[in-house]
């Protein structure tokens, strides 16, 4: 067995190994989807919106299964897709380093293989968790080595159903608008894929220059010597607090509703292939019960993130301190909690994300027809949960379903491969641990739909296929006669 840490040529040798693995497995499969043309332009079989981790592994799985005519669109420049080098501010990933993530079952495609090929086995052993910048470099390599069809700098302004059952995408690149027609769309748009950052209404009366959300671009250097308040104490709140402290803020106050920080990551405790593949099969009431409980317990911020903040003497944690008011006073804001009033120069909201289909203009033409869980599932007594109630109710391949059958059939061709799919499918679309299993489920569903839709063409191909296996010269003519009849008498 090869030792990746001993590879003399690092990534070059790893890539050779990956190519051989793919060849032995006969991957990617040959292209098999019949081409289509409408309005004088070729139809794209699948458009994936979002070129982050989820979009890349979705593309990899489709290519693997022979759906070659697909594209991945991302509005960010190449190498800046997703959160890793934009608004993610942790030092390392929160997931354990050994998780295989988007590798699709290929050992040579894992982060570990990549890391050891670059830095050696000893560096891997010494590594605690993956630095986020290194993880981004891995995803850039992943995209390159699989030759995935990513197009950068393209935003999608609208998704419009067509009378022929396909979909038009109104895309923009630079100042130029273009229409792309496709048979399926995959929304690989991340944590805020069906909504956006959640900011509580108390921010409404405060000038925007005084606050930001953790998902915003923030000039932390401008906060040097300032008083900063952070609302929330989840992982992103901690990472932003630490970044502010490292930029030299004079004082940092974290305001937290709870009596203490959550300490146990409940879902980690039950992580297994049973959860990965079995969650989607749970009765609806059990899906709700699992997620409502886990969300109520909350996920603790990583220990290193908390220590990164607590190491600064000017950092103060205010427990049992929900923010009940914000008052703008001249050049600063006063934060009111049940325990006191605190003057700050800037506020960072670590308050998570919301599901709000009306907040996504590209979905305006289809959003009114998308069925949410609250449209068909009565909220269990004592388990009210706004995020779950607003979650889309999805089919087996992550496709949207209609509130009224027949109202918008095109929804069956739009696949929600982002975080809000969790209630329907479990944690397969937004986190590293099971992203390959999620992409496999997605791609298989799309492949099935494409084949069934093209059944007439495939049957025509079946009838027209005339390449002979036998050429007629396999048997001598004198051996093809009729055998003489056996005599009924014994000789």
Automatic annotation (TrEMBL):
What GO terms are given for molecular function?
Answer: flavin adenine dinucleotide binding; monooxygenase activity
In terms of superkingdom, the source organism counts as Bacteria
Q: Identify the SUPFAM superfamilies for this entry.
A: FAD/NAD(P)-binding domain
Asked whether the UniProt record includes Phosphoprotein among its keywords, one would answer no
What's in the keyword line of the UniProt record? Answer: Oxidoreductase
The protein, known as: FAD-dependent oxidoreductase
